[in-house]
Every structure is written in structure tokens, then in C-alpha cells.
């Protein structure tokens, strides 16, 4: 997205501001389709939690994606956006049976990640086929906080408990129509991922009524120049061949499913902030912006790196800065960053702000959540207004004390 355009958007809609570009979402979606073009039955389910603005969901509907949801509210948002229940998969962790029942009654594909709920669900609804989430006990990525397929993880049913799953299936008469894994968000090594898929293929052979195999996600995107990212083309070439071979072995053409979030929307978004203060201290130069961890928590939550550049002075002399937020606790967006010289009033642009940014935002420090703008076919659309003071009070009951 062009610097001049972004600056004009902050003048039009204010700051801070999230801006998303549908053309980048579409090209990332297309990359997966191309990488797996040999597989006839391919389904991509966008992981709603990455960015759940209803207009983003509607765009995914338009390009024929399905969605992956982790709460009943995400299911309802998907239905509101126009998705048919069959194009929604519900993959929650640790939710009550009643929440799963609610989703099942809407007709969405259920994915169960523990034996307790599997048994109860099978007992009550033997005629509704479900998918099971398997934990392959593989450490797929570097970042522990976002790796979910390893032995200590709370996600999925252990690969060692397949006999128990089979016993539940036999006892209840339920059908398993899919097997699923999701190893986390940081796949660096394709061969480790492929090792996990072999575990899932072996699991699949244990169930006779499968319609699909869901390999989850975890595709890594680049955050800075020279960053390693998942080579989706290489993964596509290798896994497609292996998948088709497996289908022959299984005796049926299954659907291959992925549920990426970050890969599809991360790079499609930027976050724009206005520099309030440039402060020189004995050890540093701080650039304080009109936002904080309330709007973009990833750097503070899991040391995520967001490239920050000064779009008001893109070719200025580069200096070192601590870019910080206005929240009253340590609130660092970027430390020791080389950025072209910053003046008060400049607009700083944060890259990779399409995934897990707005969707993790809060009202901490009683700040408003920012506005969101979508660029589509060369036009900009306000897709969420900035909150107002009334929003802060909306659900609070005033009591006479
Ligand atoms: C979060 C999540 C995803 C998406 O992960 P990304 O790293 O954003 O691609 C997919 N599947 C499940 C079950 C998830 O919880």
C-alpha cells in the first residue's frame, strides 16, 4: 500500500487506524490453491480468529473459502456473513458440551478435541458425524507460546489414545468423518510438518468413514527482510503427491483441508499511528505513538516483531528509536529500531497487522478501539468506526450506592 494513500487515509478516518487490502488476501489464498492444484478436492477454511471483521469474512465467502471457528460467536458471525453451515468447521478447545450442541444444531461440522466430550456427544447424537482433533506430539515451530502440537499441549486427543477413540466410536455407534491436527503457528521446517502429516495419515487408516483430512495451519509469514517463512509451494508439491498416494491406499478420494489465518491476512494489513512525543532520555530516544498494547498486543504478548516505518519521512536519515505506546505500563512496540528520522506528528506504519491485531484488541486504559478500513478494487471503505465514549459505558449498570 502506497505511503501517500495511507497518510491520506489517516487524514480521512483519523488515527490510529487499521487498513486492510483485499488484493493481498486474495493473492495469498490463490497461492495455496496453486500450490495444491493437483488435489481436486481441496478446501481452505479461513481461521476467523485472526481477523473477524464481518467484511473480511464476506470477502472470504466471495472467493469461495470456508471458515474455521473456535467459538459459537465466531460460528454466528460466519452465518451472519453468509456462510452456509456446511462451509463452517467448529474447532473449539475446552468448551462445554452445550456450546458444541448449539453449533451442531446449526449444522456446522464439529471437530472434537477431547475424549470426554467425544463420548458424551456420540452418546447423544450418534447420527451426527464428527471430526477428531489429534495431537501428534510434534514440536513444529520455534515459539513455545504458539506451538500447540507438542506433548505438553492442551490441544487435541493424544495420538496414543487412538484405541480409546475407537472404543468410544464402537460403543456409541457414532461416525468419524474427518481427522485433524493443528501444530501451531510457526512452521519453519517443512519436513517436520510432513512428519506430522504421516502421523495423521496413519491415524486416518484407523477410521473407515472419513471424508476429509484437515492439516490445520501454522504457515509462517515473513515479518522482516530475510525472514524464513513457510515455503507453501514446496509444501504443496510434496504434500499433494503424498496425499493423492494416500487416497489410493485409503481407497477413496478424500478432501484435503487447511485452515490458515495468519498466512491469509497478516501481510494484508497495516496499522497506522501518529507520533505524539519524541523524548530523548540519557539512554534512548523514545517515539510515543497514539496507541499501545490495547490495540496491538503481539509484541508484548509473545515478542512478535512488527516492522515499523515512518511513512511521513520515508527517505530521511535513519536513527535508532524505541517505539512505545501510551499505556501506563511497559508498552514497547519495537526496541532499538532503525527508522528514518521521526518528528512529532509523523505517521508510523506497522506491517503484518492483518492477523491477531485488531481481533486481540481491548479497552485497557479506557481507550477506544480503533477504526478499520478496507481497500477493495481501488476504493477505501470504513468497515468499523472508532468507538466512542458511549461504548465504554454501554454495558455498565449504574447502581445507587
Ligand atoms: C488459530 C488456529 C488456526 C490458524 O492459525 P494461523 O497460524 O493463524 O494460520 C487454525 N486452526 C486452529 C484450530 C486454530 O486454533
Search tags:
401 residues; Lyase, Ornithine Decarboxylase, Chain A, domain 1; TIM Barrel; nine-stranded mixed beta sheet; eight-stranded parallel β-barrel; 12 helices
How is the secondary structure organized here?
Layout: H1 3-13, E1 17-21, H2 22-35, E2 42-47, H3 54-62, E3 66-69, H4 72-80, E4 88-90, H5 97-106, E5 109-112, H6 115-124, E6 130-135, E7 157-158, H7 162-172, E8 176-180, H8 190-204, E9 212-214, H9 232-250, E10 255-258, H10 262-265, E11 269-280, E12 285-289, H11 298-302, E13 308-310, E14 318-324, E15 332-340, E16 347-350, E17 371-376, E18 379-384, H12 389-393
Parallel strand pairs: 1-17, 2-3, 2-10, 3-4, 4-5, 5-6, 6-7, 6-8, 8-9, 9-10, 12-14
Antiparallel strand pairs: 1-11, 11-12, 11-16, 13-16, 14-15, 17-18
The protein binds pyridoxal-5'-phosphate.
Pyridoxal-5'-phosphate (PLP) is lined by residues 47, 49-50, 68, 70, 91, 182, 185, 216-219, 259-263, 355.
